Amino acid sequence: MEKRVKKIFDNITKKPDVILIKNSAMPFIDDNFFYVTGLTHGIFEGSFAVLFPDGKIELVVPQLEEESAKKTNANINVFRNQKDLNNILKNLFSSYENIGLNFKGISLRDFLKIKNMFSNFDFFDISDSIEKTRLVKDEIELKFIREACRIVDIVAEKIPQIVNDGMYEYQLAAEIVYLMQKNGADKSAFETISSFGKNSAEPHYTHGNIKLKKGDFVLCDFGACFKKYNSDITRTFIFDKSSEMQKEMYKVVLEAHKIGFNTIKSGIKASEVHNAVLSYIQGTKFKDRFIHSTGHSLGISVHDSSARFSSNSDIIMEENMVFTVEPGVYIPGLGGVRIEDDVLVKGDGAEFLTNSSRDLIEI
Amino acid sequence: MEKRVKKIFDNITKKPDVILIKNSAMPFIDDNFFYVTGLTHGIFEGSFAVLFPDGKIELVVPQLEEESAKKTNANINVFRNQKDLNNILKNLFSSYENIGLNFKGISLRDFLKIKNMFSNFDFFDISDSIEKTRLVKDEIELKFIREACRIVDIVAEKIPQIVNDGMYEYQLAAEIVYLMQKNGADKSAFETISSFGKNSAEPHYTHGNIKLKKGDFVLCDFGACFKKYNSDITRTFIFDKSSEMQKEMYKVVLEAHKIGFNTIKSGIKASEVHNAVLSYIQGTKFKDRFIHSTGHSLGISVHDSSARFSSNSDIIMEENMVFTVEPGVYIPGLGGVRIEDDVLVKGDGAEFLTNSSRDLIEI
Description:
Two copies of one chain form a homodimer. In chain A, β10 and β11 (229-230) form a beta hairpin. The model of chain A has no long low-confidence stretch (mean pLDDT 95). By secondary structure, the first copy, chain A, is an alpha+beta fold. Chain A has helices at 2-10, 32-37, 66-69, 82-93, 108-117, 127-135, 139-162, 169-182, 244-263, 270-282; strands spanning 18-22, 48-51, 57-62, 75-79, 98-101, 122-125, 187-188, 193-196, 217-222, 224-226, 229-230, 233-238, 295-296, 308-309, 322-325, 328-331, 335-338, 341-345, 350-352. Chain A has two domains: 2-133, Creatinase/prolidase N-terminal domain (Creatine Amidinohydrolase, Chain A, domain 1, 3-Layer(aba) Sandwich); 139-352, Alpha-Beta Complex (Creatine Amidinohydrolase). The N and C termini of chain A lie far apart (46 Å). The first copy, chain A, is built from ten helices and 19 strands. In chain A, α7 packs across α8 (169-182) and α9 runs antiparallel to α10. At the A-B interface, α5, α8 and β7 of A face α5, α8 and β7 of B.
């Protein structure tokens, strides 16, 4: 992954001698550890990756991770205790003066420890450069994302056959995750959302002990994780017959989704995508019912960098960025509709990476 | 959850006026947000919990989380943009001078933002107090952990019926996760490990495209997450007939597991548990083949606090702590055996929370 490391250095104005990526304990694992090493599995708690401007990497890992670390071609340093670790780090950094750190991915406590160990060093925040680098996906990343998208498409197409009267939300969630893993997902990208009826009005409700009944929305938001890379899709169905209001909500969200997709191309601002979607919804009877951003960058993290399709985002779209497009309309007490797809930015438009049916389906 | 908040303040020597818990973007979500609010679902990215010495909590959440936040009895403040957020925080903190922060759960970048906003304030690291408080579980926590343990026991008992000749590792992982969710788990506590043959020698290998063959170890390490609380169990089986070497490895690990369990009681040091287990294994032919700690605290995080059964841990066991006991023996190229259970510390001993069979099972 020399290219990725070099690109990170290239994207920094005031260049540090080395960059240190540090994993803490779960959940505080910096995804960049996997980005720079190309490791596709494992956790690597308490591990370090030291990056050099020529693209080389030194890994510093506890004994527990020694076998797993051998799957990268980085140089591996194994520590058995804190003293070992200190010696290895001091050795690696002996001829340097300043260290780049991912300020967004390191805990304050870990930073203070490192600062204490290298009190004469300067520390630079290189998190913006890492985010910028990661926004544009390379070939291997796109291969993994496409595979994660292929898996959720298969599952999305099968949901209408799985859903049945009296089913509980948690049962549908179980079936979705099972199908993803049977089709090759390493795990769920995030906790599967499978919300029925009025619960679908809460964008981050997941699933519970609620039984499906006629007239319910069935909102499924799920993602597959494949070799650390994620997909993220939402489909909203209606159980049995839809009401006029439900049809209207669906129609508006689907149109908003089209508008979003059609706006995306290399060179435009991320905010333009959101504003196009938002201003359309604001002109309908569902004014003020779209309460989140239109999408987010997707990759080795589900929310890959802080880049969003939101009104205050000044990110410029570039070829090979991957974003979700996910407008929604939510009416507390009644329910919500969200349609979400993963999209690859191209020079003159965009390509859907997820392609399962977006038609209104009455199950 | 007033009691939990009061206990956190009680465990701090130099008391701050307020404590601020801040979630960043996934995966940097501070579990303490859920510990103090008692919220059992949701993500709450970018949300804040402000804790007061009398046990009261003010939540500061983006609009997206408003509905979900209503499930707590904390006071809710909703922000629509950065300006809103700044005003709410400035208002909440107007009459205070020092803020306690979880240095282990806040990113350096978030800390610098907050410090910039409240430049006259003193910031204290209260992460040790939070860890200390969370180590001892209350009644609600134990109820959720027991449920998470009940689920993995059901699944562990079923694994021998699921495993079949030529099965892939990822298929077994899919079945395990499916069974957990069908039996009430909200999600997997962590990526399920289902490793066959020599892969079982890597403690953090998860699962891949490897086919089961006769004579393989089948190591399954999995956990259920129920209302944010986790269980964590490992069972190692042998497919078809075990060799003498495999039998011997299993026998040693099972004996080590018994020694670990029997050592645990209120009042002893965590290091004593590890040392008892380690010194037993070091006296067998599997000397130096036990390469991790004997266990970790378990709760709302899978690795709940940094407390471990390890040689350098000076934590004193107390009633109602919950730990895993998980000795293992690993031989690269051949495979590994690990037996893991969740254990509740009692005054005069310990209680197994997971109880599925620990006998050597040839599938």
